[in-house]
């Protein structure tokens, strides 16, 4: 009996201090009412007291639920799917195919570095190369034949088929590309291509 009264008195005394220190924006009315009942009906049987205490704990738990709520943007999952390494690499290939650089800044990192046969190529060098390549092969199409990744690196074996705009000849290439993709952007790549002999 004494223990139950002490519990009620302590709850009333420290309720405002607890709310201020934790900045809880919850409704304590049900909890206060339960504590008052606990103090007023101290003559209840043990079973009834336990039931009342359980009810108070349930009310308290429900009143604290807002503390654990959080907001997840509706399209967060879709963004993650679009930014996975394979999708980013496919977007890069689409730029090479179409010559459309509208997504260049979104998928190419500011410090992008390319290791190619002609030497090192920076971000602006990549932009210029995509434009020149598409002009030479306006109908180029890439076909991914094998692809696997580990960590932030993605390895792709592919073929490309297009028409040389200068000669009108069909050209087929095979290539290996190792791309390092960080935070949804191409940050570095190693690429090698060679023509496939006419059959």
Radius of gyration: 33 Å
Helix segment count? 7
Tell how many strands the DSSP assignment holds.
6
Strand fraction: 25-35%
Strand order of the largest sheet: 2-1-6-5-4-3
The chain-level structural class is alpha+beta
Whole-number average pLDDT?
77
Shape: elongated
For the sheet with most strands, the description reads: 6 strands, mixed
What oligomeric state best describes the polypeptide chains here?
single chain
- Order of H and E elements: HHHHHHEEHEEEE
Low-confidence blocks of residues: 1-5, 14-26, 65-81
Tell me the span between the first and last alpha carbons: 98 Å
Classify the helix fraction into a percent range.
40-55%
Quick take:
45% of the residues lie in helices and 29% in strands. With 199 residues, the chain is an alpha+beta fold.
């Amino acid at each position: 009996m004494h223990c139950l009264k002490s519990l009620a008195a302590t709850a009333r005394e420290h309720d405002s201090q607890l709310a201020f220190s934790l900045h809880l924006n919850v409704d304590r009315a049900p909890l206060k009412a339960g504590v008052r009942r606990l103090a007023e009906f101290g003559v209840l049987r043990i079973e009834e007291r336990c039931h009342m205490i359980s009810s108070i704990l349930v009310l308290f738990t429900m009143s604290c639920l807002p503390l654990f709520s959080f907001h997840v943007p509706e399209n967060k999952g879709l963004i993650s799917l679009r930014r996975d390494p394979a999708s980013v690499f496919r977007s890069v290939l689409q730029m090479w195919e179409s010559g459309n650089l509208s997504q260049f800044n979104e998928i190419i990192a500011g410090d992008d570095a390319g290791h190619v046969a002609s030497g090192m190529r920076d971000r602006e060098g990549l932009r210029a190369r995509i434009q020149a390549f598409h002009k030479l092969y306006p109908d180029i199409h890439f076909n991914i034949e094998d692809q696997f990744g580990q960590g932030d690196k993605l390895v792709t074996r592919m073929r490309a088929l297009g028409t040389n705009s200068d000669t009108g000849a069909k050209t087929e290439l095979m290539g290996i590309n190792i791309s390092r993709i960080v935070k949804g952007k191409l940050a570095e790549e190693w690429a090698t291509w060679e023509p496939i002999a006419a059959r």
